[in-house]
């Protein structure tokens, strides 16, 4: 018999699910005229009460408490040794022989197994009263079985969520044992000299996209830990690359305790923190305050995706960045689009007026490069120069052709 450890791992049942199941138990108890209704989970060799609704408190019967499984009605209902409808426990030899009958004062009992969509036995949905009830019959059991179907759908969804959390956490633990994300870098090129001005550190993972890994880590509460792991590796890689190193950080991670300690012994004149767009925050006052001491030590701040909409411009106004990165949507096809050219020209002019540098991101064609140089962008980044590569591939001696054919 397989038991599902639904609530014993890292993914708790959401509050909305807990509230719904609690209400279901109340309806069941009142509809059947019972003193107590509960949902119990089989965890190893124990029965654990997960949700309980009682007319009056019953000692020993509350969420989280449990007892040996082989001493319970629940086990016997699940394996068929006890009838699912017991109108009078005094008249049933199996029920009468169980000490729990007297301990909980059980006069009648109604219960049914709960099986998840995977086929695993979760536990039972049960109810009882302190007095016998000779009217208790198969129709009452049919009603309880119907309710049990609803309960198992809800529990199965929670179980699937638990399994997904366990999978994600397992992948993250394995990644960390292997040293964390692998760092590759993409050069950021000075559009006047063709030399490498710096590089953006990018994370690579054993499978799947980086975005998926960071989103899944955030879903299980490990987003900050994964970002910090990536930052540690990127800072180590920065020792191998010329110019500055641009690191991606979310506002949440910037504000998390301990994150900025990663920069304690780092030469911040060579570091750029690029605020990611993973979260939409209207007020960046705390982020600006948190970064202020590091900026005094030489740290530069970059804003990504400027020109993509109001959010990017709002970040520019609030954070007063040292670098703004033109959104790839502006860069793509700019050589054939006068509107893109006009907007890019305005943003570059704004940056120059506010003392910020401009990185044109996602440059892929000679035409895009030509227009962006003509508009006055300071730096370029994209496949026309290099795809992401190992850090040791970038050296001071590399000079890119700024007029490719």
Automatic annotation (TrEMBL):
Pfam families noted in UniProt: EAL (PF00563), GAF_2 (PF13185)
Organism whose genome encodes this protein: Catenuloplanes atrovinosus
Phylogenetic placement of the source organism: Bacteria, Bacillati, Actinomycetota, Actinomycetes, Micromonosporales
Gene Ontology molecular function terms on file: cyclic-guanylate-specific phosphodiesterase activity
Domain annotation EAL: ranges: 161-402
InterPro entries in the cross-refs: Cyclic-di-GMP_PDE-like, EAL_dom, EAL_sf, GAF, GAF-like_dom_sf
PANTHER family for the chain: CYCLIC DI-GMP PHOSPHODIESTERASE PDEF, SIGNALING PROTEIN
Record-linked CDD domains: EAL
SUPFAM superfamilies cross-referenced by the UniProt entry: EAL domain-like (SSF141868), GAF domain-like (SSF55781)
Designated name of the protein: EAL domain-containing protein (Putative c-di-GMP-specific phosphodiesterase class I)
Domain of life: Bacteria
